[in-house]
Amino acid sequence: MLLTVDVGNTNIVLGLYRGRGDGAELVRDWRMRTDARITADELSLTMRGLLGEHADEVSGISALSTVPAVLRELRVMLARYYPHVPRVVVEPGVRTGVPLLVDNPKEVGADRLVNTLAAHHLHHTACVVVDFGTSTNVDAISARGEFLGGAFAPGIEISVDALAARAAALRKVELVPPRSVIGKNTVECLQSGILFGFAGQVDGLVRRIVRELSHDPADPVAVIATGGLAPLVIGESETITEHVPDLTLLGLRLVYERNVR
């Protein structure tokens, strides 16, 4: 089975696929906290603990990391504990088939690259991918599968943390929809501003990006939400058309199949 590993700034997401191509099936997925100080040995032990009975069934690995310190330990872990397992670590030089139409292709994060590949694989049309993570990334993809660039905004959790840290009378609250947009108490005011505010921010960015996309107006543009915090916002968004929580894992599987026969 193929193990996919997505190391983000906040979480590490693992996915286990059975089969290849159109017949591939995501058997299980797991989520663990990212620690930039984690060692290769700790990473291997934690991963094997999560994989459980499937730990010895791994026959291929496809991984990416947007955290340089963890990327280094990830490489050590793969070499030390999976020396004979075919593997792909997404980086410059790895075949993805995604043209990068940006000023500096080396600046494009591996997560944005594999999300582009997965989104175009699913829709074969112009797409916008909204990734709700540590930052909120809104990326544009052409109908030909080209990565066109996008926009970054502060993520939900870091915005909440910053607000609680800088405003003495405010605190962290449970991120659930309030009774109405007009909050009647401090908690509801915070919930309204966070949930409806981020939904409005995303909708505004998506609408502007769609206007700039070069596509036939008659063809719809798929707007795909992914990332761990997506469920908080997608119910309030007017532009998101689909929620694909395993989009990055799908992209990692597709990259592996392009590079390992």
UniProtKB/TrEMBL annotation:
<dbReference type="Pfam" id="PF03309">
    <property type="entry name" value="Pan_kinase"/>
</dbReference>
<feature type="binding site">
    <location>
        <position position="186"/>
    </location>
    <ligand>
        <name>substrate</name>
    </ligand>
</feature>
<keyword id="KW-0173">Coenzyme A biosynthesis</keyword>
<dbReference type="InterPro" id="IPR004619">
    <property type="entry name" value="Type_III_PanK"/>
</dbReference>
<feature type="active site" description="Proton acceptor">
    <location>
        <position position="111"/>
    </location>
</feature>
<keyword id="KW-0630">Potassium</keyword>
<dbReference type="GO" id="GO:0005524">
    <property type="term" value="F:ATP binding"/>
</dbReference>
<protein>
    <recommendedName>
        <fullName>Type III pantothenate kinase</fullName>
        <ecNumber>2.7.1.33</ecNumber>
    </recommendedName>
</protein>
<feature type="binding site">
    <location>
        <begin position="109"/>
        <end position="112"/>
    </location>
    <ligand>
        <name>substrate</name>
    </ligand>
</feature>
<dbReference type="GO" id="GO:0005737">
    <property type="term" value="C:cytoplasm"/>
</dbReference>
<keyword id="KW-0418">Kinase</keyword>
<keyword id="KW-0067">ATP-binding</keyword>
<keyword id="KW-0808">Transferase</keyword>
<comment type="function">
    <text>Catalyzes the phosphorylation of pantothenate (Pan), the first step in CoA biosynthesis.</text>
</comment>
<comment type="similarity">
    <text>Belongs to the type III pantothenate kinase family.</text>
</comment>
<dbReference type="InterPro" id="IPR043129">
    <property type="entry name" value="ATPase_NBD"/>
</dbReference>
<dbReference type="GO" id="GO:0046872">
    <property type="term" value="F:metal ion binding"/>
</dbReference>
<keyword id="KW-0547">Nucleotide-binding</keyword>
<keyword id="KW-0963">Cytoplasm</keyword>
<dbReference type="GO" id="GO:0004594">
    <property type="term" value="F:pantothenate kinase activity"/>
</dbReference>
<dbReference type="GO" id="GO:0015937">
    <property type="term" value="P:coenzyme A biosynthetic process"/>
</dbReference>
<feature type="binding site">
    <location>
        <position position="131"/>
    </location>
    <ligand>
        <name>K(+)</name>
    </ligand>
</feature>
<comment type="pathway">
    <text>Cofactor biosynthesis; coenzyme A biosynthesis; CoA from (R)-pantothenate: step 1/5.</text>
</comment>
<feature type="binding site">
    <location>
        <position position="134"/>
    </location>
    <ligand>
        <name>ATP</name>
    </ligand>
</feature>
<comment type="subunit">
    <text>Homodimer.</text>
</comment>
<keyword id="KW-0479">Metal-binding</keyword>
<feature type="binding site">
    <location>
        <begin position="6"/>
        <end position="13"/>
    </location>
    <ligand>
        <name>ATP</name>
    </ligand>
</feature>
